[in-house]
Each structure stands twice: as structure tokens, then as C-alpha cells.
Amino acid sequence: MSDSIPDVRPAADGNLVEMRDIHKWFGPIYALRGMNITVKRNEILGLIGDNGAGKSTLIKILSGFHLPDKGEIWFEGKRAHIQSPRDAKALGIETVYQEQALAPHVSISRNVFMGREPTRALGFLDRKVMAVESLNALAKIGLHLRNPESIVETLSGGQRQGVAIARVLYFKAKLVILDEPTIALSVKESQQVMDFMKQLRDEGLSVVFITHNMYHAYQVAERFVIITHGENTADVKKGETSIDHLAELVIGSTPAGGRGSNEA
Amino acid sequence: MSTAPVRSSRPHALAGLVRLTSLNVFILFLLISVIFTLLSPSHRLIDPDNITVYLGLGAEFNIVALAVGLLMICGEFDLSVGSILVFCSFSVMKLVFAGENIYLASAITLAIGAAIGFLNGFITVRARIPSFITTLGTMMFWRGVTVFWSEGLQKPFDTTSYFVFTKVFSDPVGGVVPVQFLWFIGITVVLWFALHRRPVGNWIYVTGDNSLAARAMGINTNAVKIGVFAFVGLICGLVAIMQISRTGAFTSRAGDGWELRAIAAAVVGGTSLTGGIGSIAGIFWGALIISLIENGLLVMRIPYFWTYTVFGVVIVGSAILSAFLDKRRSSLGRETG
Amino acid sequence: MGNTKSVLLRILSFKISFTLVVFVALFLVFTIFTPGHIFVSSANLASLARLAPDLGIVALPVGMLMICGEFDVSVPSIIAMSSFVFVNLLGWGVPLAVTPFLTLLVGALMGLMNGILVVKTRIPSFIATLGTQLFWRGILYVTSQMMPIGLRSSLPSGSFFETLLIGNIGGVLPVQILWLVGIALVLGFLVHRHRFGNWIFTTGDNKTAARAMGINTDRVKTACYVVVGVVCSFMAMMQALRIESFAATQGIGMDLRAIASSVVGGVALTGGIGSIPGVFFGTLTIQIIENGLILMGAPVFGINAFIGAVVILFVILNVGIERLSLRAQAAASPAGKGNGQ
């Protein structure tokens, strides 16, 4: 770790997150090879790339599940040492996984407050607060449900994703990371989730999401970062690209910015 | 999201590990034999009489262990083997006393064993119950039924009149080599061929490793599992017959505690607790080790009570080892995406 | 129409209703069909009241552990071992003020060992605790030689402690019942009204989600194992006092019966689903089945067979019951209550 560089170095204006020169090995596998990613404030960023490119690994580092072997993370202009999911949450970085986000046989309110339950004396649950606040959080992203004690299993896929997303909003996230948020969802439900994401942005958060689905990505993101073989190979704004162009960038037939994909 | 890589049923790198493990088990076997021999009073362990007992009697357990291990490779547990055994024992006796020809009684018993096994498999697979719960229930059930029905039935019967029968199932060949051991070897060889050289073996491995992928590839995992469960039941029936042939009597304690030792044998032999990994050779030596431990404790005059603790340690120890090896295997390049 | 139907739906949406129905139905069946209605004779009920809490007290934390996704079948050995320690401590003259705490400590340590084993090695808990069951049983058998040890020589009857644990209120109501209800209440509040309970449910339902939300699932599981250990030790003392000795066979069979109680009470084998009231009535159900069958003349060994079949039956039924209660909940919607309530 290069501690000779002072922790407070002004980051470029408006950048919420900067990941600089991130390297990661898993045993002999060189998963991330010097990635540089920035996330601006109040933007929706789409991370796209083929399987095995490193997208999941990258966000896992950002959310504290993995430690980078080399490189730095800067958050809101300050150097961040994210050693665990708790650290990431403390900073305001929240991640929403698909199936793994909620406990299916537990109620909505208990899911929203999982791990961060409001309590009264001696640690007993403040169920009134849980009921009211969970519905409020859902309403904020446009999901209007009536019964906070409903078991999550009874909700549709889109509604479930909504609960997971509303949860991060409630906990004052600044950056929300979504891993394949629309996979396994119907067209209508995907639309619902994409609206949730836009609501998050309108609330002042930044959203980063990983997807394979170019159509969804194109609809909702303002900027795209393409990741290939552990490196970010392209960074384009929505206005500068099209769905087909994105696909080409992912496959690698169009060299963008002179960076080709290296063979392992 | 990254999908779990599907391990092929005979993965190249892992094949080496599996083979390595069964070699390790063999070495472990030799090691324990030597230690026990040295520790036993006047080296009783390698006394020919003892070896005969070890190979002969022990083979009865070993055969069951093979079947249990096979089931574990395809991803399921059977805790009811002892109960299936005792029920089949009982059924042989009951049928013989009812006047049936002993061969017919045996054939029927084999069918009964297979049917009970089939039931285990059917319930597990169709009702989606974890197999150790199903077989826990059936374990209690069949032993309970046996004890209930057998009250008073303790008459031994004279097996000398059925000398062909006993020749096949229990008399030492040439007066020396225990025939049970030959059965053990024979079944090992057959299973080895089935598992390592035939398509059905592939199906068993893949079902145990990743049943979703197996099903996607068109393998009827339900049929595979039910089939192996039925096979386990059949084997229990067979061993029950062998026991009856040897002792000529029925005891309601037959097979007591065999289920855990069988699992221990499989795990010591390199079978993974989560399925998909294991080999017949490994289970073969693992079973011999477990029987050896039992025999050894006896020969070394260690109070029988210690066997509980020893087996507790063996089970947990080998399970830890198994989990450790599993983790080593999967940590190689698991992360993708 | 509206009112009765919606009340009915609300009742059905509580899964425990089904356990209760089964319990009441069986109670009636045995009342009617036992010779001379002996099932409800005061002698039998008194005996039930004295003995049922044994399994009941143990089944509660076992069920709680199952809700968080793990099994503990080493319960018989913890019980026997604790009883051994308790009686021996008294025999060595350790004052009665101290002995119970040491005994509970033994249970806690054994539970802790189970917890660490399961959590650190990731072996299926069933196998791990089967291993520890055997391990401790062997040690116990060797050290005790399976000989019972009398209690009376070290503890004359009439002590306050004894009355506290197994006395009789007004000469009629066994204190054990109060202990059972008390422990049920404590664990019930813990599981359903405390945040630790939410951690238990979420750990059992979706461990990955719980961990992602910052819940230390390892600690939750270990804590549950420790509770099982402590409660088992407590029950062991109660039992030792009642039979006035240590017996190496104490606790035998409790592992499976505790699981059976939980399953009948609606606890799912995969975790995340269940309730303490459910386990409470589940254990009562199991025990009236055992009691009723014996009174009706069934041989003792046959009962095991029956319990085995009952477990399987209820595991299958639970899936259906779960579905039914969800549907009832959805139908009774705005007012309906959910799991974990």
C-alpha cells in the first residue's frame, strides 16, 4: 500500500467514487488488471461486459466482500479503506443482489430492517416503527404496498426487487450497486425495477448496475463502462453510443480508445 | 450474476485428486494395521483366527458400506440401513418358520429390501425431504416394526440342512477363505465397473455433483436416486441373508449403529459429504479401515465403550477433512464474472 | 358472510392453528378411545404434567436452532453428561449454591463446542453433532461405567433447590410445567419480539442475505447452540432430581423426539420457518401420542416406529400447510398477520 500519498487528495469534481488501478488475483487467476472506474454524483452507470470479465468482482470489492490486491478506492474525495460490508455500508455504499437480497419467508418490514432493526428497551423490536417506516421507504421509490407484515414470498419479482431497493434508500445510501437487477423478471417487472432505479437517482443517489441486457442498460443508464478481461475497455455516454455499438464494444470488434482485449 | 461452473463428472484435475485420495486411504489402512498389530497383546491382530473373523464378519458391514457410499456419491444419505437389515433378517426367519423354502424366503427378502429402499428414495425425491430426515424416520419405523412383530420369535433354526445355502453365503471356501470376503470383493468389482466404466456411473456422479445440470442434460436424477436407494435396500437384504446363514438366528439388534459407521467409511474413503466426489476404491479401503478400527479396539482389549468416542472423532475428523478438501478443490478459480 | 369468513381466514393465517387443531383432535381421540377414558384420568394427566416438560423444555431451543437453519442431535449426550457432572459435584461436597451454575456452564461449553464445530468447519450440522454425541457418550460411558449414581446420599430431600425445580404447587401442579411455560415465554419473546429473533429467522431463511446485511450469522448460530446446551443441562438437573440419581441412559431418544416436536410444530427442516408456540404445542402433541398409544396397549418399541412415520408425514404436510396459511393470509390481506409474529 502506498501510504506516502496523503489520504486527502482532491478528486475530480463531482465524482462520488473513484476506483484507481485496482488489481485482484484469485489464486493463479488474474481477475482485475488495473481497473479505473469513476462514478459521478447523481448518475446511473451501467457496467457491461461478457461473463468472466470481472464486473461482479469489481463491485464486490466496492461493497467490501473482497479486498483488492492493489489499488485505491476514493469516496467523496477521501481515501476509503473498505475492509468489510459494514465499512461499505458505513460510507453509504449499498448493494442489492437478486435472489440473495431478501428472506422469502419473512415479512416485508423485517426484511427492510434486517440487521438494522429499530429497537426499544433491551433490544426488543419497535414493530410500529418498522411497519410505518418500511411502507414509507417503499412509497419513496414508487412501490405502494399496504401490509408490511406480508411475507415477501407472496410478492411478485418486481415488488421483491423493489423491497430490496427501498431498503437501501431507507438506510441513506449514497451509492447503490445492483447486480443483474432485471434478470429473471418479466418485461413489466423489469420496467418497474428500472423506474425504481430512476427514482433513486432522482432522490440524489448514484446507481451502478451490472447487466447483460443491453436494452435495459440503454434505457436506464446515462453512461456505460465496458469491461473485458479484467480491464475497462470503453467508457461512453449514452448520447455517444447505441445498443448495437455497445454490443460491438463488448464483443471487441470495435476497438474503443485503442485498447484491445488481451488474451489470458 | 456469475453462475457456478459445472464440474464434469470425470474432471481431469479432480480425477487425479480422487485417485490420490484412494491411494491415501490405502496407505492409511496399512498404517493403522501396523500400529494396531504392534499395540495388540501378542500381536493378536494378525493372528489367522482374527484375520478370518475380521475379513469374514467385517465383510458383512463392508458390503453395506459400499452401498451407502455409492448413495453418498449421488448426493444422498441413508440412515436406515441398520433397520432395513434387521427387518430383512426378521423377514427371512418369519418366512422360513412359515414353512417357506429358504431360497424362496431369501429371494422374497431381497425384494423386500429393495422395496424398502425404493420407498426411502421415493419419499426423499418426491416429497423433497432431505434424505437424512427421511431415512431417520424410516430407520425408527422399520426397527420399531421389527421389534414389535418379532416379540417372542427368538428360536434359532438349524442351518446345517441347507448346506448349499450356507456354502454360498457363509461357509469359508476351502475351509479357509471367508466367503463373505469374496462377496465383498465381488461386489466391489461390480460396482467399480458400474461406476467408473458405465454410463450409469456417470449419471450417479453428475446427479450428486450438480443435479440441476444433470437434469438439464436429460438425466433422470429422480430415477437415479431412487434406483440407488433401492440398491442399498437390496444390499441390506443380501447381508441379512448372509448373517442368518452364518448365525442361524435372528437378533433384533442386528445392524445397530451401522449407518454411522458406513458413512464414516465412505468419508474416510474420500467421499464428499455433499455428493459428486468419491470412488469405489476409496470406499473399499475406508470400509476396511472402519472394520479394522472396530476389530482392533476389540483385540487391544479396549473397553467397548470407547468405540463411541472413537467413532465420534472419526466421523467429525473425516468430515472436517472432507470439507477441507472440498474447499481446496473449489477455491481454484471459482470466481468468475 | 364477511365476518365469520374473515375471522376464519385470520385464524388460518396463523400456522400454529394447524398444530393446535391436530393437538386438540388427538386429545379428543385418546380421551374417547383409551380403555375407560384413562387418558384423561387425573393420575395420567398428573403424570403427563410431571414428565412432559422434560422433552418440552429441550424441544424449544432445539426448534429455535432449527429455525436458524441447523440441527443438534447431541442433545442426549449433553443431558447425560450434565446429569453426571451435577450428581458428582454434589457427591464431592460442592455446595448446592454453586453446583447448578457449574452444571449449566458444562452445558454451555458443550453447546459452544457444537457451535464452533458447525460454524467453523461447515460440516452439515447433523453429522457434526452426531459426531459429538458419540464422542461424549463414549467418554461418559467410560468414566461412569454406565453405573447409576444415587443422589440422596449427597442431597437430602426437601431442599429449596429441589422444590424450586420439581416441587408441587398446592400439592397439585408440578413446578416443571411452570418452567416449561416460562422457558417457552422467554424463548418466544426472544424469537418473535426481539431483534435477535429477526437475526435467527433471516439467518435460517437466507443466510447470504443476512450476512450481506451485516448480521454475524456465525455468532447467531453459535449462540443458539449454547442456549440448547444450557437448557439441556437445566433439564438434566430437573430429571436427576426427579429420578434421584444419574443414569447413563438419560436423554436417550430426545434428539429425535425434539426434532419431531419441532416438525409437528411447523418448523421447516430447511430453516427460516417456524414458531416457538408451534414447538410448544408440537411437543405436547408428540407426547400425548406416545402416552395415548401406550395406554391403548401399543408396545413401547412400536411407538418409535410411529413417531418416525409421523415426522415424515408432518414434513410433507408442513409444505402444504405453509401454502395454505399464505393463501389465507393473502385473502385476509390488510388485517392479516405474517410469519415471525
Description:
- The complex is a heterotrimer of chains A (264), B (337) and C (341).
- Chain A is α/β, with parallel strands linked by helices and 264 residues long.
- Chain A has 8 helices and 10 strands.
- Chain A has helices spanning 55-62, 85-91, 108-112, 127-140, 157-170, 187-202, 214-220, 243-251; strands spanning 15-26, 29-40, 44-49, 70-75, 78-80, 93-96, 175-179, 206-210, 223-228, 231-237.
- Chain A has a 6-stranded mixed beta sheet, sandwiched between helices. A 4-stranded antiparallel beta sheet of chain A has the order 2-1-4-5, with helices on one face.
- In chain A, α4 (127-140) crosses α5 (157-170) and α5 (157-170) packs parallel to α6.
- The longest helix of chain A has 16 residues, at 187-202.
- Chain A is globular, with a radius of gyration of 19 Å.
- With 337 residues, chain B is mostly helical.
- Chain B is 72% helix and 0% strand.
- Chain B has helices at 12-39, 48-73, 81-97, 102-126, 131-150, 163-169, 179-197, 199-209, 211-216, 221-247, 258-268, 280-299, 306-330.
- Chain B is globular and about 55 Å long.
- Chain B starts with 11 loop residues before the first helix and ends in a 7-residue tail after the last helix.
- In chain C, 73% of the residues lie in helices and 2% in strands.
- Chain C has 14 helices and 4 strands.
- Chain C has helices spanning 2-13, 16-33, 42-67, 75-91, 99-121, 125-144, 160-166, 175-193, 195-205, 207-212, 217-243, 254-264, 276-295, 300-331, and strands spanning 149-150, 168-169, 173-174, 245-246.
- Chain C has a two-stranded antiparallel sheet with strand order 1-4. In chain C, strands 2-3 form a two-stranded antiparallel sheet.
- In chain C, a hairpin with a 3-residue loop joins β2 (168-169) and β3 (173-174).
- The longest helix of chain C is centred in the C-terminal third of the chain and has 32 residues, at 300-331.
- Chain B binds chain C through residues 123, 127-130, 132-134, 136-145, 147-148, 151, 260, 263, 273, 303, 305-313, 315-316, 319-320, 322-323, 327, and chain C through 117, 121-124, 126-128, 130-139, 141-142, 145-146, 256, 259, 269-270, 299, 301-309, 311-312, 315-316, 319.
